[in-house]
Specification:
Blueprint lengths: L23 H4 L7 H34 L4 H23 L2 H14 L1 H21 L2
């Protein structure tokens, strides 16, 4: 099979083309009237993610404090470290701009596609569980 598409009037296909290299604005040109609404939705979603991570960090801290009183000191230390990590993620999401977060996601997909797929599957599972629990 040939990749010469010039006979059909299309530009030739270049094997080094990467759709992720296109700027976001040129890849999907949204209606300029909807751009503020999209930005508002993304900002609200960012705030929800940060808040959810903060709540998760507090819940993990509560578990760690309960473990402190049971004599499981080493395990409690690991749980405290996990709570600190989740709290760090929350503050990182909070202080970064939406554009920075989108850029980080693009970089993750480009450099580690398997990790990106795993994160997407995990996020989908969590969203499905949350939606199912709200019924």
């Amino acid at each position: 099979m040939t990749t010469d598409t010039t006979s059909s009037g299309m530009p030739p296909i270049t094997p080094d083309h990467d759709a992720l290299d296109l700027p976001l604005a040129s890849a999907t040109r949204p209606d300029p009237a909807t751009t503020p609404a999209i930005q508002s939705l993304l900002g609200q979603s960012k705030a929800n993610v940060s808040s959810t991570l903060g709540g998760l960090a507090e819940a993990v801290r509560d578990v760690a404090m309960k473990l402190d009183g049971t004599g499981a000191g080493l395990f409690a230390r690991y749980v405290h470290d996990a709570a600190d990590t989740v709290a760090g993620w929350s503050s990182a999401v909070e202080r970064r701009s939406v554009d920075d977060l989108v850029g980080d996601a693009r970089t993750l997909v480009r450099t580690s596609p398997a990790v990106a797929v795993g994160v997407a599957v995990g996020a989908g599972f969590v969203v499905a569980r949350v939606l199912r629990s709200q019924r």
